[in-house]
């Protein structure tokens, strides 16, 4: 049996589809990310995990945490630590604006996808508010009803 790959949009290295289930995504931002050479090679191989990742603001800098980029196999000795903190690159005023919104409203920063834009790796982060259990159930109901509608339309076209 062939391994099934997770559904990832074209051009994406990894996407966090679970984020839209756990959070209401309010605003999305594109950030640069500071990576080591072995991390870039591993990302080009198409492997990263964003499920438990989040971003924090510390000392006026934005840091990406709990994102797993596996070790690059050919670089046996000089490899990186898979879950190290990585610095995100944004303009100062954007970081200050995000810090204010996160502090006053109880919002969080969640990575939604990693992709390459030209030769540079980018991370899309979203300003997010956690969903309640009721909201999660409503999302599932809405998704199921949308799926049923689409199925009915497909059968009607046949």
Poorly predicted runs are none
Q: Look at the structure and give the CATH class.
A: Mainly Beta
CATH fold-level topology: Small Protein B, Chain: A
Large-scale geometry: globular
Write the layout of secondary structure elements.
Blueprint: E1 12-15, H1 19-22, E2 23-33, H2 37-44, E3 54-58, E4 61-65, E5 86-89, H3 92-105, E6 108-117, E7 120-130, H4 133-157
Antiparallel strand pairs: 1-6, 2-5, 2-7, 3-4, 4-5, 6-7
Task: Explain what the structure shows.
The protein is of the alpha+beta class. The chain has a single domain, classed as Beta Barrel (Small Protein B, Chain: A). The protein is 32% helix and 32% strand. It has a 7-stranded antiparallel β-sheet with strand order 1-6-7-2-5-4-3. The two termini are 32 Å apart.
Annotation keywords:
Small Protein B, Chain: A, 158 residues, 7 strands, alpha+beta, globular, 7-stranded antiparallel β-sheet, 4 helices
Outline:
With 158 residues, this protein is an alpha+beta fold. The protein is built from four helices and seven strands; from the N terminus they run βαβαβββαββα.
